[in-house]
Specification:
With 176 residues, the chain is α+β, with helices and mostly antiparallel strands. The chain has one domain (29-175): Electron Transport, Fmn-binding Protein, Chain A (Pnp Oxidase, Chain A). It has helices at residues 2-26, 32-44, 85-92, 122-127, 139-142, and strands spanning 48-54, 60-66, 76-81, 95-100, 108-119, 143-157, 173-175. The longest helix has 25 residues, at 2-26.
Length: 176
């Protein structure tokens, strides 16, 4: 009986010690540049992303979007119809999330949380024109731009080893 109790206590102590040693050494911190480079890689490999807004009842609304090349400071641009639901939702609540992932590769994802702004600037719209817009009658009058200024970026990039914290499961992030 004493041997069983001793073995039980020894096992409990070893498990406790192992758990806390893994917890202390298992966490990985990433420098800002590593997180941003991992995010750039995922974003550059995706042609489409998801724009998440909030509707007037507070529920999330997700749609697939084709983004313009993002800027070095991770500002994201889209074009859309000025009378679209997303424009209405952004005017009501500019807090948005843009989600990038290529699910055919499952290499990871990037979530950019930020503030959206509707930009009604014809010269800027013309500078961002895409060839297929020529097939859309009156696109110059219909389209406006959406500018997303990032506040926070979260990234998982498995090939680069940028993974979630093993204890909290939070993705590495950068605040802007």
């Amino acid at each position: 009986m004493k041997n069983k109790l001793f073995l039980f206590l020894l096992g409990a102590i070893l498990n406790f010690t192992f758990f806390f040693s893994v917890k202390a050494t298992g966490q990985t911190s990433f420098c800002r540049d590593s997180v941003l480079n991992a995010a750039r890689e995922i974003i550059n490999e995706t042609d489409h992303c998801a724009l998440i807004t909030t509707d007037s009842t507070g529920l999330p609304h997700v749609r697939t979007m084709s983004h313009f090349p993002f800027t070095p400071d991770f500002v994201i641009w889209f074009a859309t119809a000025r009378n679209s639901m997303k424009v209405t939702e952004i005017r009501h609540n500019p807090k948005v999330c843009v989600y990038f992932s290529d699910h055919t590769k499952a290499d990871g994802y990037v979530a950019v949380i930020g503030k959206a702004e509707i930009i009604d600037d014809k010269a800027l719209l013309l500078s961002k024109k895409r060839d297929y817009w020529d097939g859309i009658p009156r696109w110059k009058e219909i389209f406006v731009l959406i500018k997303i200024v990032p506040k926070k970026l979260e990234v998982i990039n498995y090939p680069r080893g940028v993974n979630s914290d093993p204890e909290t499961l939070k993705a590495p992030s950068v605040e802007f």
